[in-house]
Amino acid sequence: xxxxxxxxxxxxxxxxxxxxxxxxxxxxxxxxxxxxxxxxxxxxxxxxxxxxxxxxxxxxxxxxxxxxxxxxxxxxxxxxxxxxxxxxxxxxxxxxxxxxxxxxxxxxxxxxxxxxxxxxxxxxxxxxxxxxxxxxxxxxxxxxxxxxxxxxxxxxxxxxxxxxxxxxxxxxxxxxxxxxxxxxxxxxxxxxxxxxxxxxxxxxxxxxxxxxxxxxxxxxxxxxxxxxxxxxxxxxxxxxxxxxxxxxxxxxxxxxxxxxxxxxxxxxxxxxxxxxxxxxxxxxxxxxxxxxxxxxxxxxxxxxxxxxxxxxxxxxxxxxxxxxxxxxxxxxxxxxxxxxxxxxxxxxxxxxxxxxxxxxxxxxxxxxxxxxxxxxxxxxxxxxx
Length: 385
Fold this sequence. Notes:
By secondary structure, the chain is an alpha/beta fold. It has 2 domains: 7-252, TIM Barrel (Alpha-Beta Barrel); 308-385, Arc Repressor Mutant, subunit A, CATH 1.10.10. It contains 16 helices and 16 strands. The protein has helices at residues 36-48, 74-87, 104-107, 110-116, 130-135, 142-154, 173-185, 203-206, 214-230, 249-255, 288-294, 309-320, 329-336, 341-352, 367-371, 373-378, and strands spanning 7-13, 15-16, 28-29, 58-66, 89-100, 120-126, 160-166, 190-195, 234-235, 240-242, 259-264, 268-273, 278-284, 301-306, 356-359, 362-365. The strands form 4 sheets. It has a 9-stranded mixed sheet with strand order 9-10-8-7-6-5-4-1-11, sandwiched between helices. The chain has a 3-stranded antiparallel sheet with strand order 12-13-14, with no helix packed on it. The protein has a two-stranded parallel sheet with strand order 2-3. The longest helix has 17 residues, at 214-230. The chain starts with 6 loop residues before the first strand and ends in a 7-residue tail after the last helix. The model has no long low-confidence stretch (mean pLDDT 94).
């Protein structure tokens, strides 16, 4: 495997003001007091146990996700980022993203977050419509969403993503299109636009809302793609739309099967070891209290798994086929350590089904392949020799 595999850092912050009924992330209602100082101590202790595995490698991107990381105080964030820089070689031009809630309290911190070193903000807007936001259990309204974007821009952010959902309870094509028009008009550089799905073990799974039917969803998707394209946003992955030069570098590293450290409650990571040819996944204790209690010892790692050739083949395809640009043989070999023959059977099947196509030396999902991604991935489930 190529020793130049990019390396990212993911930091999980597990608390939010309240749990949304559609959310299946590892997030927990904060209550009255968040143990901020203790959690930052735990994050750093967690990281220090992994430093030997990444010694000498540079961090290309950092992503602080959650939960609602914008609940961190500016002083706490400054301390965390300073401590990370003291322990890791973070590139001067690294993309450093923080997820943020549009709530009023967090808005007042945006300028301080930018000063601390955050250079990309991801706002969980979901919709600008008050009725739809209430149906989603969001704690902000449309006005707060608009003011949050403006506050981020005033605070010095010129690289902002907003999350927008479609297919919301009671939503029609006109309402979905209006959300996109507002998002586009706000001047943000990136949009994560995705369909609401009902996930297991969520409040919506226990009491499902009435969602738009397939015909209405298709109409929403078609109109939305036209609006985004006409406004200068290019779709580069399943739910990612960006203006020129503003693709999310951190997410691209995931999709291209790069490496990443994961620290924080429930965080996952993936590390390649060129000397041995091994690729390992790891994940941390999921519950915040369990994580806090274990972070200073080896028991913070809840599990590890060595990827066998079949795992590498399927996981590479599960990630890279999200990208419209596709991949070439060199990327496959560098990121999986496998010969091209390991992928040939699945590639030939997908080509025959019209789900993949060669463009010069690059293999890309066709429009049909993007619409039927699960069927495309089935071509690679037989495993690798």
